Amino acid sequence: MNSYCSECLQECVIKNFIIQTSSLSLPGEWEMEKIKKFVENSTISLPTNWSRTWQDEIRKNYLAINVVRETSIVKNSTQSATMDVVDVFSNVGGQTGLWIGISLLSIMELIEMLYRLIRNEFHIIRRKIQANRQ
C-alpha cells in the first residue's frame, strides 16, 4: 500500500478513521410497532401473509446502521523543511571540521599567525630603515 507508481505522487493529506463495530440481533420490542407502521406506509411490497408474520419478517430483514464519530478532535500536523542562516553555517562548519579537520578556531589562529608574521616583518623593515638613517 505504501508503494507508488512512477507517475503518481505521494499523497499530501492522510485521513485515518478508527472503526469500531457492534451489532444487535434484532430490534427491541419498543421499536417493532414503529417499524411496522413505517413499512406499511412505504412503497415496499409486502408478503401475502404480512398480517400474521410481520414480526418475523421485520426480525429477518431489519437493518439499522448508525455512523457515529468517536471524537470531535481534529488533529492537523504540518511539516516544513526550513533552514535558517545559523543552520547553514553550522552544517558547513561541521562538515568542514569533520572532513578536512578545520574549525573556525583554526581559521582564526591562522589569521592571527599571518597578522603577527606581517607585523614582525614590518617592524624588522622599520628598524632597518631607522638604522640606515642614523
Descriptive keywords:
2 domains; 4 helices; 134 residues; mainly alpha
What can you tell me about this protein's structure?
- The chain has 134 residues and is mainly alpha-helical.
- The chain folds into two domains: 7-76, no CATH class; 85-133.
- The chain is built from four helices and no strands.
Say how many strands there are.
0
Which structural category fits the helices and strands?
Answer: mainly alpha
Helix residue percentage: 40-55%
**Overall geometry:** rod-shaped
pLDDT < 50 runs, ≥5 residues? none
Distance between the termini: 92 Å
**How would you spell out the order of helices and strands?**
HHHH
What percent strand?
Answer: under 5%
Radius of gyration: 43 Å
Count of the separate structural domains: 2
Mean pLDDT: 83
List the helices and strands and how they pair.
Blueprint: H1 29-41, H2 50-61, H3 85-99, H4 104-133
GO cellular component, one term: plasma membrane
Transmembrane segments: 98-118
Family: Belongs to the amiloride-sensitive sodium channel (TC 1.A.6) family.
